[in-house]
């Protein structure tokens, strides 16, 4: 019987997992969910990168990920691991105070909670808070993002050009601490907790459309040493410090390896905190990600 667990992705650099060219201002957009239009990383991309990390152990690679080539029926079998798509959990957004806020919403937290409940049924679940108004935001009592300047009557959290009324809420603090623990970095965790914010689903959807990173790229003409004609394009990236999660399915081996615990073998070889590169534009520093299980 297949068992499931949650894996997390913590972006160290901007990430470009693209979908090819598109009609519009952005020539090379990132992959997004069809219905919610939220940034995501396909499970096939995660699996492909991790398969390469097992190149030094071909038998284990074949057991966990399946054969690369099938020359006869006896070579045909499924891998013991199944990778779900990595879905957005927290999006870093520019803030007027505190430099950056790590933003999520009730919808994102509810989906994460459902995935965690299926994978870790014995672990206590946190309550997902609700946002009363679209201009409200919940923060921890230690938030470094809030401000009350001039004649403002409320604590404010200013994200990009959005002015949100900040409310200190113990549920936000509990979620900030829980998610910071999943990232497994004691030096980074306090920064995440102090900058964590829960906005409404509407605001999160707006930020997911407008607060991703857009970079212009050019190609230089070798002879003229100027921009080559027509060689200017715009690429979209998921910002550095984005946090995503997915479901990892662990099954018994489907070959004759006799491996007793495929999940333990996967973790032992890869480690609990592996640095991998996902997506395109690797030579210009895109796609460095911590894979956490």
Defining key terms:
single chain, 293 residues, alpha+beta, Alpha-Beta Plaits, twelve-stranded mixed sheet, two-stranded antiparallel ribbon
Brief write-up:
With 293 residues, the protein is α+β, with helices and mostly antiparallel strands. It has helices spanning 43-52, 58-65, 106-119, 170-183, 189-194, 201-210, 262-270, and strands at residues 3-11, 40-41, 81-83, 86-94, 100-104, 136-139, 156-159, 162-168, 196-199, 213-220, 227-237, 243-250, 273-277, 288-292.
Descriptive report:
The chain is of the alpha+beta class and 293 residues long. It has 2 domains: 153 residues, Alpha-Beta Plaits, CATH 3.30.70; 101 residues, no CATH class. 24% of the residues lie in helices and 29% in strands. It contains 7 helices and 14 strands. Strands 1, 2, 3, 4, 5, 6, 7, 8, 9, 12, 13 and 14 form a 12-stranded mixed β-sheet that branches. The protein has a two-stranded antiparallel ribbon with strand order 10-11. The relative contact order is 0.26.
